[in-house]
């Protein structure tokens, strides 16, 4: 029997087909004209608009990716095996080792520990080696035309134009994912405007090629999301028989979990007994289990997925060995 998610995906595909018939690709220029008019009213310069929209066309690859996103039915065990690989850990150790001084400067400036920065850097772009090659303006304009979440993508496109107007990046170099996530940290344009940092001090915030700006921008995002300096995100635990954790909604002092029979796999707790925490078992009580602390929530503000936050924490713990 098809799942609800499959049925929804089919419905979206059908709706897109109807829209495509009613609004063939020759209506795309009208969408571009409307976007440029809105941008002019927002104060974007004509020169920036001419450069940003030069050669922009309806991108079928963006539409194909948007309408064929994978179902999110993967187990944690499968996800962990796919993303926490020996290669990613080895590359992470090399990346952190080669940039240790930079990590230390970022840590001192923002009060964010190197492990979590490296974990996000590794997951988002494999330490800067895979950042996406879609032209951001074209991708976002295509998704505005597509219609679903049009207001969201319109806001992101306007933010991208502000970035170009400021001169931080050229239109040709502003590349990212099919949905407009940019550079090594995979910031959406609105996140860039809020959190990107010119740590290199050259007057531009370059999250595409500048490691100082990349790492500092990730740190700034986490700092403003409530990261607690020199505290961990969580740790693996062993659950007692019969305990079925309720996840992040069930928050207790760590001492309460210990009295309930939850035990740290490492043999010691990595937080104080009073630390408010939750027990997360993404595949159920028979699979991996973790006690998570307030910094776990800071990671989830970067990406609101338990799988993602767990992977960031686990990768960071392994690649930021002093």
From TrEMBL:
<dbReference type="InterPro" id="IPR011970">
    <property type="entry name" value="MltB_2"/>
</dbReference>
<dbReference type="InterPro" id="IPR023346">
    <property type="entry name" value="Lysozyme-like_dom_sf"/>
</dbReference>
<keyword id="KW-0732">Signal</keyword>
<dbReference type="GO" id="GO:0008933">
    <property type="term" value="F:peptidoglycan lytic transglycosylase activity"/>
</dbReference>
<dbReference type="InterPro" id="IPR043426">
    <property type="entry name" value="MltB-like"/>
</dbReference>
<dbReference type="InterPro" id="IPR031304">
    <property type="entry name" value="SLT_2"/>
</dbReference>
<feature type="signal peptide">
    <location>
        <begin position="1"/>
        <end position="22"/>
    </location>
</feature>
<dbReference type="GO" id="GO:0009253">
    <property type="term" value="P:peptidoglycan catabolic process"/>
</dbReference>
<dbReference type="Pfam" id="PF13406">
    <property type="entry name" value="SLT_2"/>
</dbReference>
<feature type="domain" description="Transglycosylase SLT">
    <location>
        <begin position="28"/>
        <end position="317"/>
    </location>
</feature>
<protein>
    <submittedName>
        <fullName>Lytic transglycosylase</fullName>
    </submittedName>
</protein>
């Amino acid at each position: 029997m098809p799942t609800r998610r499959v049925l929804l995906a089919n419905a979206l595909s059908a709706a897109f087909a109807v829209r495509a018939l009613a609004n063939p690709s020759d209506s795309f220029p009208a969408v571009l004209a409307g976007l440029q008019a809105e941008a002019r009213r927002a104060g974007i310069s004509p020169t920036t608009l001419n450069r940003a929209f030069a050669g922009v066309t309806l991108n079928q690859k963006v539409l194909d990716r948007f309408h064929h996103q994978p179902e999110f039915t993967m187990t944690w065990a499968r996800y962990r095996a796919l993303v926490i690989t020996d290669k990613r850990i080895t590359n992470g150790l090399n990346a952190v080792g080669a940039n240790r001084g930079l990590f230390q400067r970022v840590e001192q400036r923002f009060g964010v520990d190197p492990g979590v920065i490296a974990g996000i850097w590794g997951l988002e772009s494999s330490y800067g080696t895979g950042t996406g090659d879609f032209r951001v303006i074209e991708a976002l304009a295509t998704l505005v035309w597509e219609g679903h979440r049009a207001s969201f993508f319109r806001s992101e496109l306007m933010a991208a134009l502000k970035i170009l107007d400021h001169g931080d990046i050229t239109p040709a170099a502003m590349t990212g994912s099919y949905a407009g996530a940019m550079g090594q940290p995979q910031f959406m344009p609105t996140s860039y405007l809020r959190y990107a940092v010119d740590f290199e001090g050259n007057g531009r915030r370059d999250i595409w090629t500048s490691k100082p700006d990349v790492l500092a921008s990730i740190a700034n995002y986490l700092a403003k999301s409530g990261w607690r300096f020199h505290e961990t995100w969580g740790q693996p635990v062993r659950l007692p028989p019969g305990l079925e954790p309720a996840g992040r909604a069930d928050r207790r002092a760590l001492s309460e979990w210990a009295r309930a029979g939850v035990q740290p796999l490492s043999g010691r707790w990595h937080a104080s007994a009073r630390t408010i925490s939750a027990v997360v078992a993404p595949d159920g009580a028979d699979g991996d289990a973790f006690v998570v602390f307030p910094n776990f929530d800071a990671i989830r503000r970067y990406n609101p997925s338990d799988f993602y936050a767990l992977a960031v924490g686990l990768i960071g713990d392994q690649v930021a060995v002093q």
